[in-house]
Amino acid sequence: MFDFLEGYDLLGAFWATVQLTVYSAIGSLIWGTLLAGMRVGPVPLMRTFGTAYVNFVRNIPLTVIILFSSLGLNQTLGVKLGGGEDFDTINFRLAVLGLIVYTSAFVCEALRSGINTVPLGQAEAARALGLNFGQVLQLIVLPQAFRAAVNPLANVLIALTKNTTVAAVIGVAEASLLMNEMIENEAQLVLIGAVFAFGFVCLTLPTGVLMGLLGKKVAVKR
Amino acid sequence: MSASVLYEAQGPRAKARNVIYTAVFLVAVAVLLWWVYTSLDEKGQLDWALWSPFFGSEAWTTYFLPGLKNTLLAAALSLVIALPLGAVLGIARLSDHAWVRVPATVVVEFFRAIPVLILMLFCREVYVAYTGVSSDSRPLYAVVTGLVLYNASVLAEVVRAGILSLPKGQSEAAMAIGLRKNQMMRMVLLPQAVTAMLPAIVSQIVVIVKDTALGGYMLAFPEMLSNATTASSYYGANIIACLTVAAIIFIVVNFALTSFASWLEKRLRRAKKSTGATLAPDGGVDQSGFGGATN
After folding, report:
1. Which residues of chain A have a pLDDT value below 50?
2. Which fold does the domain A8-218 belong to in CATH?
3. Which residues contact A41 (CB under 8 A, 6 or more apart)?
4. Smallest CA–CA separation between B49 and chain A, in Å?
5. For A156, which of B217, B283, B290 is closest by C-beta distance?
6. What residues of chain A lie within 8 A of the CB of B7, using their CB?
7. HSE of B227 in the Cβ direction (CA atoms, 13 Å)?
8. CB within 8 Å: A159 and B292
9. How much is the ipTM here?
10. CA-to-CA distance for A114 and A68, rounded, in angstroms?
């Protein structure tokens, strides 16, 4: 029944999806946290930059961003991101770059909603102790904000997992590109659809459940 | 917690420090912009010939305006079909009967877990294999079907959350005056929930508009992004210019929608008649990413 899978690297394709997700998640968590820090910080120019970045990036389709990183950055401007002459590596890295640029805007918003749940008294007490802005943010507010932001961040992570399929537009060999190839060459249309749907359900549903449990476990009881 | 409580009112030293931070940040941004400028200039991407088409009418009437029309058409069709479908699914998930609730839950969770691109590719092949839809209109059909399947399940969650956000007293009062369950839903809960849901629905339109670009490029549906790439091969390798213009149009359209959503939210909060319940727009691509406003 599953003969049609022969000759296709199904696990390899989903492994590429997982890799795209993990690298982009780490990158966008870092960049998104920095953006959130800029948006709540005391320097007006950084606040403006953070706000503008989030508002611009959120309104551009991810497809445009990833296409731009390939056709614009790589093919026109010659940016290779240290990938040498290997197109697969370059495209993979460009896709990760595009995903980070896009997803960090949503990470920033999730973190800001987390910061909003921290009671006023926490920051006031921290300031009363004489901590400066960086210390207030790092020692008092962000640790609590991250705990409260686990659920919104889980939504972002799930969306990111699904968004990695957009990397197919620049030919990164992940799941949706393989599906596009298989669905055109093989006859078992519904079965192929079911296999790929199952693969993504396996990736996204456990993420949601586990992050939900984690969110409950680390939530600050108030 | 508002941002300003995170730091003290600034004295002279803090102000001087801020000036330094601002200067350093400006220099960093300037270096980045300079790099962008020089590399664009080096590759001749700033030549007037590459940008001049956008100041004539031909590029707009041939590529960008028809593309925008198709983008908005696909988005509007998807929304109009997905909204009632989502409402039915959302209400079905709240049903007291397990044989209604469980299938609706399974459908909603299933389609929310799958990338919209997978749905679009699958729908395209279904139209090829099982229907007589002509190959010209097939991309539109596939894009809209994929978007409807995905967004109906996202909107189902919005509807469900909207109804659950109402105070319990509303349904208790409705029951107390002897309304049936469907009367209660139709006459009491839904009208109030709609006001709470509107901002989330408008934010979801942004997600739909962004996702049309994905379908357009992968399925060769002539919306704005795929038209922009066609335009760049016609005008001679000005892909950076074309993508920039397409991105600006997307930003303008989506920014208008987002501003409308936040205006609506403020207005609905003020309105005395509503319960004041509002939903935070779903993160996505979706949340989404391109799923949900998480994206």
Report:
1. none
2. MetI-like fold (1.10.3720)
3. A47, A133, A137, B3, B6, B7
4. 16
5. B283
6. 41-42, 127, 132-133, 136
7. 21
8. yes
9. 0.91
10. 32
